[in-house]
Amino acid sequence: MVIDFHTHIISEDFPDFTEKYGGERWPVLQRNCACGASIMVGGKNFRDVTDQVWCPEKRIQDMDREGVDVQVLSPIPVTFSYWADAHAARDMARLQNEYIAEVVSEHPDRFVGLGTVPMQDAEVAIAEMDHCIHELGLVGIEIGTNVNGKNLDDPSFLSFFEMAERWDVPLFIHPWETLGRERMPRHNLMYTIGMPSETALAAASLVWSGMMEKYPRLKICLAHGGGSFPYLLPRLDQGFDVWPHLRLTSHPPSYYAKQFYYDSLTYDAQNVRYMMERVGVDKIVMGSDYPFLLREMDPGKVIVTEESFTAEERQLLLGDNAARFLNLSLAKRGVALANDPNARS
């Protein structure tokens, strides 16, 4: 089975939250034609999208043509809205979570879904994660790399990560609101340089702070091959060696890097091979970033065409690892747990 772990979706009927809550930062879907739209933020064009981003039937046509059995659906990060009031952001998340659950229910053999939660308030985020997993039957949660400038090792997020580990909820960490974005107004460097750097900062914060040691069963997958994080591990380890007074963990960062999963979206077989050597072939999942311009087309192309990968390695990379990460053999656990109050304590 071929599973595309990294795809994004938005409802065609995405509402304008500025009408209800005010403010200029809510994303708005502005239709341009029958087959496309612009995501507008503050009156400016944030991103152009095609109808593939909201039309399940077109997605399935593409999947059939490109050899993908299952897509993992997740929200577009600009909709996280961590800047907003937590309950307003919860409403934004709830709308998307229920839409994704609806698409999955209509095509259960082709899609599974990740929800999103308002990370600016851990209590509200936990409640929405509960709803996503135990009531809607989604299989994980997508979160951003920072929350209003706070790195993910901030103490205010501890309770959220604790519950994600307790409930065995897989987390997909996707870059957004990248560091240094004020220096990247041209050349689309936010996407090519800013996002990989942002992901590295998030990952390094989690390992250096001791979060991954504190929660060893926490399931986290990093987008875009972990950004620049895998290639900075020797430097992070060197820092661990020469600054013993800063150590908060029993082992160097490269040890905890092997607890993460990583999608394969590096566009290069050498990079995938390097990641396999650094963190293990069992920790990489195929992801394409469908349906955006920077996606890998066809999904998993680098894995399929690289002759040095064995058939067993390809099977792990293209589907088996993602199924294990997402507990897909337990896909109906949300229904069971929703009726078991003891399972959520």
From TrEMBL:
GO cellular component labels: cytosol
EC number annotated for this UniProt entry: 4.1.1.45
Keyword Zinc (UniProt): yes
Protein's GO biological process: secondary metabolic process
Record's keyword terms, sorted: Decarboxylase, Lyase, Metal-binding, Zinc
Pathway where it operates: Secondary metabolite metabolism; quinolate metabolism
InterPro entries xref list: ACMSD, Amidohydro-rel, Metal_Hydrolase
Molecular functions per Gene Ontology: aminocarboxymuconate-semialdehyde decarboxylase activity; hydrolase activity; metal ion binding
Domain Amidohydrolase-related, residue spans: 3-328
Family: Belongs to the metallo-dependent hydrolases superfamily. ACMSD family.
PANTHER family in the cross-refs: 2-AMINO-3-CARBOXYLMUCONATE-6-SEMIALDEHYDE DECARBOXYLASE, 2-AMINO-3-CARBOXYMUCONATE-6-SEMIALDEHYDE DECARBOXYLASE
Oligomeric form and interacting partners: Monomer.
Protein name: 2-amino-3-carboxymuconate-6-semialdehyde decarboxylase
Organism: Fictibacillus macauensis ZFHKF-1
